[in-house]
Amino acid sequence: MSVQLQKRLFTVKEYHLMTEAGILSEGDRVELIEGEIIQMAAIGTRHASCVNRLARRFSLIPEDLATFAIQNPVKLTDRTEPQPDVVLLQPRADYYATAHPVPSEVLLLIEVSDSTFDYDRDVKVSIYSRSGIQEVWLVDLVKNCLEVYRQPDPNGYSLMLKFWRDQQVAPLAFPEFKVSVDFILA
Question: What's the whole-number mean pLDDT along residues 30-45?
Fold first, then answer.
């Protein structure tokens, strides 16, 4: 006889209440993915260096064109609030002090991946597509390439482009702002 157990899924509101109650701390490396609290992998030196380089490059975009966020939450649904590595957001006067950004405010979302590449590609990129995030970059530190996902729909992104060393790519929101894959990967 097989017994099917029911999971207790959490909402974003309940997730935040857990921090307020001290169940989770601000320092816990967790994110809420489809109602489940997922422990995030430790950040290795190459991962951190890649995020630093992306931060340096994208910080050159004027603040009246984009707000730049590193490893901050994005509320995708009532049950999903990931913390992507880098996000370019539509500017808001409050710099997102009153609420976390939602998909319609995301100009570009970037995940840097080494040990979690399959999870990031198969689970998170799929969620980003269903949420309507217009463009996602997945930096693959193992294969030393950049996967760019565009044209979201409920079944996944219609377009995936792969960029390698010696190539450049520009975000859809800033086509004149070219980024070297060599610079991203170092």
Answer: 94
Q: Two tokens at 155?
A: 């079944």
Q: pLDDT (tens digit, 9 = 90+) per residue, 45-98?
A: 999 999 999 999 999 999 999 999 999 999 999 999 999 999 999 999 999 999
Q: What is the dihedral of CA 13, 127, 39, 67, to 10 degrees?
A: -70
- Hey, what are 32's tokens? 């809420």
Amino acid at 2: S
Of the candidates 160, 170, 171, 166, the one whose C-alpha atom is nearest the C-alpha of residue 185 is: 166
Amino acid at 137: W
pTM above threshold 0.85? yes
pLDDT of residue 186: 86
Is the domain 42-185 a CATH 3.90.1570.10 member?
yes
Q: Letter for the amino acid at 83?
A: Q
Contacts of 101 (CB under 8 A, 6+ apart): 69, 74, 75, 87, 89
Residue 59 neighbours by CB under 8 Å, 6+ apart? 68
Q: What's the DSSP call for residue 85?
A: S
